[in-house]
Amino acid sequence: MISSNIVLKANSLTKIIENKIILNQVSFEILNNEIFVLIGSNGVGKSVLIRCLLGLETISEGTVEINGSLNRDRLFLRRQTGLVASDHIDHLNLLTPSEYFEFIINIFQIPSNYAINFIDQTSRKLFVEPHLKTPIVNLSFGTRKKIQLLGVLLYQPKILFCDEIFEGLDSKSVTNILEIIKNYVQNNCSVFLTTHISSLAKEISDKYCVLENGCITNASWE
Question: pTM score > 0.90 for this model?
Answer without folding.
Answer: yes
